[in-house]
Specification:
The complex is a heterodimer of chains A (118) and B (75). Chain A is α/β, with parallel strands linked by helices and 118 residues long. Chain A is 34% helix and 22% strand. The longest helix of chain A is centred in the N-terminal third of the chain and has 14 residues. Chain B has a domain of 51 residues. The chains are: A alpha/beta (118), B alpha+beta (75).
């Protein structure tokens, strides 16, 4: 089973990244192949400079998932428009583009989008 | 690496280098090699993924002075 997630909302403002973390963790526990694409504002969650005293650290959570084999990719253009630098990326995460998102959609058994609730 | 065709995508942002590549590949015959130059770093991950999705062969890449050249063989 390959499960892929797309997240569009920023960390700490919306709960989508927390939800995806929990789902991804449990997917990995079950031996699933897990991919996460961070799109639009969610690319901010890849910034290793984020410090959260006494609270969950989402970039570290992403690195933890990557160290367990999850593919974590973010939109390079979204990062550029928000001033995020490649050398600030959390360990195990990388910037990519829509072809990678397309591949995740095409090759996954389940694809779940966590977008804006308008 | 010697390419049969080249495509200049410097200055273009994602997803345009991939879209231009997809269009250009329609002009190639099977086995011919296309070299794509771009300065959008997303191409480093995108081109291998696009090749995997389309069945074309990703042959490799090089980077000089911020210009990334990727090589693709048409299936």
């Amino acid at each position: 089973m390959k499960i892929a997630f797309n997240v569009q909302t920023g960390p700490y403002t919306f709960q989508n990244l927390d939800t995806v973390y929990e789902l991804a963790k449990r997917g990995l526990d079950r031996g699933y192949e897990v991919s996460i694409f961070l799109y639009v504002d969610s690319v901010g969650a890849m910034n290793s400079n984020i410090t959260t005293p006494g609270d969950r650290n989402i970039p570290q959570r992403l690195s933890e998932l990557a160290s367990r084999g999850a593919q974590i990719r973010g939109c390079g253009l979204c990062a550029k428009y928000r001033g995020h630098k490649r050398d600030e990326l959390a360990e195990g995460t990388r910037l990519a583009g829509t072809a990678v998102l397309g591949e995740m959609i095409a090759t996954s058994d389940r694809f779940i989008n966590f977008g804006f609730d308008i | 690496m010697k390419a049969d065709f080249s495509l200049e995508c410097t200055g273009l942002s994602c997803p345009m280098p991939i879209i231009q590549t997809s269009r250009k590949m329609k002009e190639l015959k099977p086995g011919e090699i296309l070299a794509v130059q771009a300065d959008d770093e997303g191409i480093k991950e995108d081109m291998p993924a696009w090749c995997k999705t389309t069945g074309n062969e990703f042959l490799g890449m090089k980077e000089e002075n911020g210009i990334i050249t990727v090589y693709v063989r048409k299936k």
